[in-house]
Automatic annotation (TrEMBL):
<dbReference type="InterPro" id="IPR005479">
    <property type="entry name" value="CPAse_ATP-bd"/>
</dbReference>
<keyword id="KW-0547">Nucleotide-binding</keyword>
<dbReference type="GO" id="GO:0005524">
    <property type="term" value="F:ATP binding"/>
</dbReference>
<keyword id="KW-0067">ATP-binding</keyword>
<protein>
    <submittedName>
        <fullName>Cyanophycin synthetase</fullName>
        <ecNumber>6.3.2.29</ecNumber>
        <ecNumber>6.3.2.30</ecNumber>
    </submittedName>
</protein>
<dbReference type="InterPro" id="IPR011810">
    <property type="entry name" value="Cya_phycin_syn"/>
</dbReference>
<dbReference type="InterPro" id="IPR044019">
    <property type="entry name" value="Cyanophycin_syn_N"/>
</dbReference>
<keyword id="KW-0436">Ligase</keyword>
<dbReference type="Pfam" id="PF18921">
    <property type="entry name" value="Cyanophycin_syn"/>
</dbReference>
<dbReference type="InterPro" id="IPR036565">
    <property type="entry name" value="Mur-like_cat_sf"/>
</dbReference>
<feature type="domain" description="ATP-grasp">
    <location>
        <begin position="225"/>
        <end position="477"/>
    </location>
</feature>
<dbReference type="GO" id="GO:0071161">
    <property type="term" value="F:cyanophycin synthetase activity (L-arginine-adding)"/>
</dbReference>
<dbReference type="Pfam" id="PF02786">
    <property type="entry name" value="CPSase_L_D2"/>
</dbReference>
<dbReference type="GO" id="GO:0018169">
    <property type="term" value="F:ribosomal S6-glutamic acid ligase activity"/>
</dbReference>
<dbReference type="GO" id="GO:0071160">
    <property type="term" value="F:cyanophycin synthetase activity (L-aspartate-adding)"/>
</dbReference>
<dbReference type="GO" id="GO:0005737">
    <property type="term" value="C:cytoplasm"/>
</dbReference>
<dbReference type="InterPro" id="IPR011761">
    <property type="entry name" value="ATP-grasp"/>
</dbReference>
Amino acid sequence: MAKFNDIQLLRTTFLRGPSVWTYRPVLEVWLDLGELEDYPSNKIPGLNERLTSWLPDLIEHTCGVGERGGFIQRLEGGTWMGHVMEHVIIELLNLAGMPAEFGQTREISRRGVYRMVFRCPEEAVARVALEYGHKLLMAAINDEPFDLKPAVHAIKTAINDRYLGPSTGCIVDAASERRIPHIRLNDGNLVQLGYGAAQRRIWTAESDQTSAIAEGIAQDKDFTKRLLAACGVPVPEGQIVASPEEAWEVAQDIGFPVTVKPSDGNHARGVTLELSKEADIKAAFALAQPEGSDVIVEKFIDGVEHRLLVVGGKVVAATKGETVSVYGNGNATLRELVEVLNQDPRRGPEQEYPLDWINLEAGAVKLELNRQHVTPDSVIPQGQGVLLQRNGNMAIDCLDDVHPDVAYYAVLAAKIVGLDIAGMDMILKDVSKPMQGQGAILEVNAGPGLLMHLKPTSGAPRPVGMAIADHLFPREDGAGAGRIPVVGIVGTRNNAFISRLVGWLLQLSGKLTGVASSEGMFLANRHTQKTNTANWAGAHRLLTNRLAEAAVIQTTARSILEEGLAYDRCLVGVVTDMDGYEQLADHDVLEPGQMRRVMRTQIDVVLDEGEGVLNADLPEVADLAELCDGEVILYATGADNEFVAAHRANTEARHEGGRAVFLKGNNVMLATGTQERVLGTLEALSLAGGKRPDTSALLAAIASAWALDITPELIGAGIKTFEYQA
């Protein structure tokens, strides 16, 4: 069989926000099929069989058919290679543990060239998936071998390198469920939830309400215990020691058995329990010393380890631990038994799995083995148990069993330390009974891991991400939690002027307002940047600014095509025109009608409670009204505009009729249904210094301000005081 030349990847563009394709980030790839344009899938012998043998779950892809096996039907009936590559990439992402769920492939005006997109929130991951999807498809086309396992591993590695950790991720997912937007601020786990002045920040399970003082207290475990004890919280007796010899002396004074641990460690590293022998205590000191600044010897309290998660003064999750042991069969060595134990799918790296792998070379494990006089190479007799780990495996859900008294002390401890989110390590004989006499608080942890509550080895997963999201954004704040008024404006006709006037009116209404426009960045009365900010980067900077109580963002058709919008939704979306297709031939926009698909993006993102503002003088713009999830305000330079008349008469969206701003004679009118109000004459609505703005641009700004519930009186007064210089 003759070999086909590679499909050429002409262009790859990561669209970071809502775009012509979808609301979420996608990678857009321009593909040149070359000679393969003449060879759909049913004309390449063996192609479909090779694809389905390597990727059997392609059967689950419904494709446009809308049923299981839909894509296979398309393969067998004949579909082009751009479409096939789309599904191959989506399946590779599925196998790597990141369902893509969305893809599209569309031919452009040039024969054999297609735009293919697939959803992926991280550009680096998307590019790795594209690389291996391309390789797999070409191997299948040319009947060459392909090793799937390294491909999936490479994508998984990219996911692990780039994706949020489970603690941060579950909070972000919960916020998204409540339609609270998020912005990732670095390559790690620092995330902004919400926009502008309404934002909150998280870093794993810490928030911007987590006090640095409280975190410092929690890290000093000895001082924390003294604070808790002073407030009546049961804690084990203990003391900081400076040497192995002092550790032994203090242990004798406290009374056996004891626990030896670092004073400021975490994740149970360096902690050794239930020690009574001098050699063991001194060895435990050596184990704990590298993990913290000091070493503590404290009284060992018999019971079961528990972790209670406290969020905003409430216990929202609880797990309990269990020791880890293996049992001999008379043939296998301890090392072999542990290898089998580590094959448990629940075990893995601590940030990803509820149970850790058991490492026989770890100091704590070695110490446990020494106490039992066994080595990794010992053959363990039939039925004999070997204790490997006493702590650090708190992954059995027990929230429903927590006694109110136990919860009280957990909440009290968090308040004493000053943490809004805290993980309480407690030792309890029975979590369902009152605390006194049967337990104590061992540690208070800032930034606690959440994975044990999300993926317990037994019991119900707990919605801890939602608990933290609700703590940061109380439900009583309503549907707009985390949002500031965002006005998005797209078009070419005086849009910088419109943006700045709307920003000025918002500022006068009492909101510190930022404007990102082609004339620069403005914050309140300051011109903070003079270069063009009518793009993704400019909008992004504005939305991350904690001073901004409202944002007006100008964008362009090119920015939508090359970057996507920087915001997920807006309160007001404005489309002034659909001009400029002549400058977009490089995006295969070749005629005016193709602009609708681009410009509708601004209206597609209007919130349900928001409004679209559309130029009714242009039928192609007025027709976008049907796409708006919110209400619509039309503006026009004539009172007899047919779109305005029909909109005012429409009582479906608003029972009193649609709203419009238009010119009647020389008067600017605000109309709701049949009701009309004169805002002022064009002369009276001149800018400061008597400047007369473009009439259509003035009407667009007035309509936008009205959509923001700014009063007509303030709109009129604000226009007259607006000092505009381009």
